[in-house]
Amino acid sequence: MMPVQAPTPSDRPPAATWSRPGERVMAAINRDPLTAPHALRNDALLAVAAAAVAVALGLLADGGRGPDALGWVLLLACNVPIVWRRRRPLLVLLGVVACVAPYHALDNPHSAPTPATYIALYTVAVTGRPLRAVLVGAGVLTLSTSVMLTINAHEALRMLQISGWVVAVLFCGVDVRFYRQYVASIVERAERAERTREEEARRRVAEERLRIARDLHDLLAHSITLIGVQTSVAAHVLSADPERLDRETVAKALDDIAETCRSARGELRTTLEVLREHGPPEARGPLPGLDGLPDLAQAARLAGARVEQTVRIRHAPPAVGAAAYRIVQEALTNAVRHAGPDVSVRVELDERQGALHLSVSDDGTGPAPGGTPGFGLVGMRERARSVGGTLDAGPRPGGGFEVAAVLPLTTTGKRIG
Predict the structure, then answer these.
(1) CA distance 237 to 252
(2) Among 207, 329, 389, 402, which residue's beta carbon has the most beta carbons within 10 A?
(3) pTM for the predicted model, two decimal places
(4) Long-range contacts (CB closer than 8 Å, 24 or more residues apart) made by 171-176
């Protein structure tokens, strides 16, 4: 059972400083009595306070006649077990009853030991099952009534009249116990949901990285195939007619091979910076790129969105194009899913300062306030990081939602910003 504590002073806003006493009271109610800090010290202070109240009642009750010498000893002794009430509630109650029963039998002021008795009964009720509280309460009332009958019938009748207070104390303890269990269950569910969410986030990140690895596999396969074709062209030129060697064609083929190797090496280096887990590619397909953006826009239009697309860039490295494709794909999916009906989406891609600037914005309502965020943003950020870029996403000042990414067009392994 996890305790629920009040906020620390550093977490509490200045305007709420007036509520500190109330927060402390609620923290004491919510806290599990068996795990509360400074329990022994607090119970010792409670025992002293109960003894002081008992002394005051002994001096003032019944016309101030006060207990006799043995009565004073029993009255003070019944408060001592309260110090250990959290550890052994039943033994503490038995100790209190063992002192209170002879105290009443000697016809001392009967209201004086009430605080110690009520504290012991409350502790039994708040730390045990309701059935135990009911049985203990019935036993205490029966014993008290029997002791009062040894004095006179009037005192026994008076004991039965005030038995409602005993029942009220027991029900209060049972109610607090149920409330603490309720609060503890809420805290436990919240912590379990948080753990599950973190595990799910890690799983989604791992899946996204695996998908990046698959795209990287396709990229390398494309580069190696291109190198093979260019090498075949150079070999054919060299062997077809050595006497009429076309040096310009051979030089161009070799230059293309070198450029392809440099591009593949740079893209491989930037992608491997964020890939930490390896797995066999289970599915293969062509690497998506900027030429697939019109298809994404058309799919969003078929889903009911009004998509306006502006692409002011002619060429991007395959890895950057694939990252931009995936980011636009996820952003359009989120807009169609969360922005509401008849949403207007604007997709912009342009080249500035050697980087691809991507923006997907909508004028919809966005996710419902207080809802649980999804994992799409995690995947988009991983995509941007895979090529050394950055991504920001959030509500727009004028309404709607925007996803903005900056992806470097030179795959040197350096990150932007």
Answers:
(1) 11
(2) 389
(3) 0.44
(4) 171/125, 172/122, 172/125, 173/121, 173/122, 173/123, 173/124, 173/125, 173/126, 173/133, 174/125, 174/126, 174/130, 174/133, 176/29, 176/126
A 10 A CB-CB count for 194 gives 10
DSSP characters over 137-188: HHHHHHHHHHHHHHH-HHHHHHHHHTHHHHHHHHHHHHHHHHHHHHHHHHHH
| Other CB atoms within 10 A of residue 31 CB | 20
Query: How far from 133 is each of 24, 123, 140, 179, CA to CA, in Å?
Result: 27, 10, 10, 16
Spatial separation of the C-alpha atoms in residues 99 and 107, rounded to whole Å: 13
Q: What is the average pLDDT value for the chain, to the nearest integer?
A: 77
Query: And the tokens for 370?
Result: 């207080």
Q: Are 76 and 97 in contact (CB under 8 A)?
A: no
Token pair 């026994």 in the structure block, residue: 156
Q: Can you read off the two tokens belonging to residue 245? A: 């060697």
d(CA 317, CA 85): 73
Return the bridge partners of 394, or none.
402
What is the spatial distance between Cα 273 and Cα 37, in angstroms, rounded to a whole number? 47
- Encode pLDDT of 147-196 as tens digits: 777 767 776 677 666 777 878 888 888 888 888 888 888 888 888 888 88
pLDDT value of residue 408: 92
HSE-CB at 95 with a 13 A cutoff on CA atoms is 19
pLDDT given for residue 3 in this prediction:
42
CA atoms within 13 A of residue 29's CA, in its CB half-sphere: 15
Q: How far apart are CA 206 and CA 53, in angstroms?
A: 65
| Both tokens assigned to 337 | 């899913």
Q: Which amino acid is at 81?
A: P
Whether the Cβ atoms of residue 75 and residue 103 lie closer than 8 Å to each other? yes
Percent of the chain with pLDDT over 70: 74
DSSP string, 10-24: TTS-GGGGGGHHHHH
Tell me the two tokens of residue 222: 């494309």
Contacts of 83 (CB under 8 A, 6+ apart): 40, 43, 44, 47
Q: Contact, 411 vs 388, CB < 8 A?
A: yes
Nearest Cα to Cα of residue 46 among 60, 28, 63, 58:
28
